[in-house]
Amino acid sequence: HNGNGAASAAPFLRITGIDKHFGSFRALSNVTLDVQAGEFICFLGPSGCGKSTLLRIIAGLERQNAGMIHSLDQDISDLPPAQRQFGILFQSYALFPNLNVRENIVYGLRNRRMRSAEIDSRLNELIELIDLKGSEGKYPAQLSGGQQQRVALARAIAPSPRLLLLDEPLSALDAKVRVHLRQQIRDLQRRLGLTAIMVTHDQEEALSMADRVVAMRDGEVEQIGTPTEVYHTPRSLFVAGFVGKMNILPGRVGGGRLSIGSLSFAMPAFYDTPENQGEVIACLRPEQMRLKAAGAADALPARVMQLEFLGSFWRATLVVPALGDAEISVDLTSRDMADMPVAIGESVGVALPEDRFAVFPASQSGQVR
Ligand code: ATP
After folding, report:
1. Domain shared by 183 and 36, yes or no
2. Which of 148, 166, 229, 267 has its CA 20 to 30 A from that of 138?
């Protein structure tokens, strides 16, 4: 119930004030987070930020030092893993090598009192879902990495878990399989209406799969938001730099205006805070900048240092003398290149779109990775 006395649905999972220490090392501090039923959540952050520890605490495999976990209205903070009825999928497939596909998946149902007809129909359904019809009798060694991980996924979802926990499930697979399996997992999760939490250090994976991303750093949650929120309005320079490629420009804020070199812009409302005064860092994505002819009035003079063809676009690396020789990247579509071809060594102008800046105090500059 909320403060007004009206009924409000409890979230599917509520994590409140979780702390975790390993000796004197603080792996998690005051992590608070709600997960709604049916959501796909990604914990995103660099190695060591505590995302696996948080997942293990949710699973009940690790005990928090402080804080609580509720599922709907039930306090599950001290419930043993089996009683939480969560499914877990790890990076390593962890299949039994001496059991075939069918036996591996059935293993997930071993504690259920199910009739064998029920087990058979559940099994057939799962084999269909993971696209392995005809391979029921194969052993793990006869399957590719991607197929093994699909079997492990089927085993994890076989008992219809209330929550699916995925710890870097794709990181041992090669790039192409990974991208395909991303879609399969997401598709399956949607079709079965599962609630899922996935740990990843891969920002592209998080952006492409998550309903909401939980960006973590040094044991703390830095931002929770949809992929587009986290990408376009990062709340810290750390998140700005970790999620996608970001250009970092020195700037100044005064009188509600943002100056970058000789250019002046209205301060974006989202970042117009008391902390953003004086010396600041202004961030722009490479695809948000435009090239103009050298000497254009509304652009900063720059020189093209590098030009890379990346298939669907070109990435130009420029150096900007007016910004202390700052290096910036600008992405150009093939249409951009047709309209205004550029070459290494050329002088150009860089135009900055007024309404796309993310702005942070210069004191955060240590957070860039
Ligand atoms: P990675 O992707 O590398 O696994 P992570 O973000 O998942 O990183 P965690 O595995 O949660 O990070 O670990 C967070 C921190 O806690 C790390 O510095 C790690 O060394 C430490 N840690 C984790 N488990 C233990 C443990 N059992 N004993 C001591 N320190 C631990």
Report:
1. yes
2. 166
Q: Do 21 and 135 share a domain, yes or no?
A: yes
* Cα–Cα dist 364/45, whole Å: 17
Measured distance CA(51)–CA(199) in Å, rounded:
6
Q: Whose CA is nearest to atom 14 of ligand 1?
A: 50
Position 265 in a domain:
yes
**Same domain for 94 and 169:** yes
Q: How many domains does the chain have?
A: 3
Specify if 239 maps to a domain.
no
- In tens, the pLDDT along 163-191 reads 999 999 888 888 888 888 899 899 989 98
Backbone angles phi, psi at 17, to 5 degrees: 55, 40
| Pairwise CA distance, residues 84 & 165, whole Å | 12
The two structure tokens encoding residue 259: 């100056």
Q: Which of 178, 93, 188, 171 is CA-nearest to residue 139? A: 93
The Cβ of residue 114 has, within 10 Å, a number of other Cβ atoms equal to 15
Q: Is residue 127 part of a domain?
A: yes
> Closest Cα to residue 352, out of 258, 218, 278?
258
Where is 305: in which H helix or E strand? strand 300-309
Q: Which residue segment(s) compose the domain that 216 sits in?
A: 13-232
Give the number of the atom of ligand 1 that is nearest the alpha carbon of residue 54: 11
Structural domain contains residue 7: no
Cβ < 6 Å from ligand 1: which residues? 22, 25, 27, 45, 47-53, 201
> What is the C-alpha to C-alpha distance for residues 17 and 228, in angstroms, rounded to an integer?
26
Measure 43 CA to ligand 1 centroid, in angstroms.
Answer: 14
Q: Within this chain, do residues 303 and 185 fall inside the same structural domain, yes or no?
A: no
pLDDT single digits (tens) 279-315: 999 999 999 999 999 999 999 999 999 999 999 999 9
How far apart are alpha carbons 328 and 320 in whole angstroms? 8
Q: Give the burial class of 159: count Cβ atoms within 10 A of its Cβ; 0-12 exposed, 13-18 middle, 19 or more buried.
A: middle
Question: 27 alpha carbon to ligand 1 midpoint, in Å?
Answer: 7
- Same domain, residue pair 52 and 163: yes
